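Quick illustration, no need to memorize.
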Amino acid sequence: MGYKSIVLNLDIDGMIAPVVKLGVDLAQRFDARLIGLSAADVPPPVVMEGGVAFDGESMMRHRKNIERRIEDLRTEFEDLAGATVETEWRGAVGNPTRLLISAARVADLIVTAPPEGASFGNVHRSTDLGSLILQAGRPVFVASSNQENFRIDKILVGWKDTREARRAVTDAMPFLQMAQEVRVITIDNDATDETWNSLDDVVALLSFHGVEAKADVFPEKSDGETIADVADAMHADLIISGAYGHSRFREWIFGGATRSLLENGRLNRVMSN
């Protein structure tokens, strides 16, 4: 079991060198094809007092700027990757989240850096991580904002006895099999025998795949930071977690623990839904 096709999402406005180096590192570890993808869209015309904000000529100019930037990113991606791994490039003018979700068809794993800087929150120029994780049908590796040399020595699994957590453990098995230390934790103020039985079963499953793991239970914090705090304490290189959310008025709403992990830029996370 492994990842043989990795789609690497490149923010059109961000610094791509750190995440490309991470993608190359992962592709080398798993002997995988690395597919670089970058996209941005031209905002639709906005009617304001006095007329349309963007006329046809302005929209065309905006489109050409996007195309030039995507071509620059392609060159940078190919230069950084070199001949060390097999690569492919996909760049397009279009909604970046939708195009990345579509590219999940060819992916075993999606790797992305969190959006930041000028494009943060701009649906035309950055990826909506919530929609991506909940709709891609693939594990999503969200890199830390200060990615340097990525290690896979210590992994923390945030466990709940749910479909999402089971999926996350299976999806992340190639990472878990590389780790030297794995801890499976549940956040529960009133752990029962069933809680511990659930944890023991996960530890047993991991052992069947050659992964030695330990289990523990921690009390819940109101700010949802417990998993991140434990990860910091054990100096975890990676957190594995299910993503829990639902659709409301076309917006993806996450629970506190999932939202806390998504907003924590200092952690590497693999999340599945």
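Residues 247-254 have pLDDT under 50 and may be disordered.
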